[in-house]
Amino acid sequence: MGSKLYIKKGDIVKLLAGDSKGQQGKVLKVLTD
User: Fold this and answer.
1) Is 15 in contact with 23 (CB distance < 8 Å)?
2) Of 9, 11, 16, which Cα lies nearest the Cα of 30?
3) Rounded Cα distance, 33 and 24, in Å
4) All residues at 6 or more sequence positions from 15 whose CB lies less than 8 Å from its CB, including other chains
């Protein structure tokens, strides 16, 4: 059972939680089950 991921390696994402909340970064690696 897998879910469709809407992000991929290289995408720019905004962090919503944690110490770095509000910062933007690039996806380096996508982990799948």
Assistant:
1) yes
2) 9
3) 25
4) 21, 22, 23, 24, 25
Return the ∠ at Cα 3 (arms to 22 and 20), rounded to 5°.
Answer: 15
Length of the chain: 33
Question: Sign of dihedral through CA atoms 2, 30, 20, 23?
Answer: negative
pTM score: 0.55
Alpha carbon distance 21, 9 (integer Å): 20
Encoding tokens for residue 13? 């994402």
Give residue-wise pLDDT tens across range 1-28.
Answer: 566 668 899 999 999 999 989 999 999 9
Give Cβ neighbours of residue 28 (< 8 Å, ≥ 6 apart): 9
